[in-house]
Amino acid sequence: MIEIEVQNETRQTQETVRFAAVPRIGEGVRLQDPDGFWVSYDVVDLWYQKAEFGEIWMPYIHVRMTPSEISAESLPRPQPVAEDKEEVIETAKKVARILQANENA
Question: Pick from 10, 71, 74, 78: most CB atoms within 10 A?
Fold first, then answer.
């Protein structure tokens, strides 16, 4: 595994991520955002810097959120309808009754 410093232009963050291979400029990578969702990013720059120790060159990438992800993120997420919640609760109750009947049989 290769540790790569990822500079995220969209989120204005910097973190170290492990990759199996160094991505190339123009490739897409999936990274987990702080909200826990996986989002597509495009690699816009790649460079190497000499590490503080030894003769090792560390890779750095600069990423930007894929345009389709930006447009999807800007759309409001639908809020669950009260009827949907009630339906889920009723279904859970039915499942619980079925499981309880199977245990008693």
Answer: 10
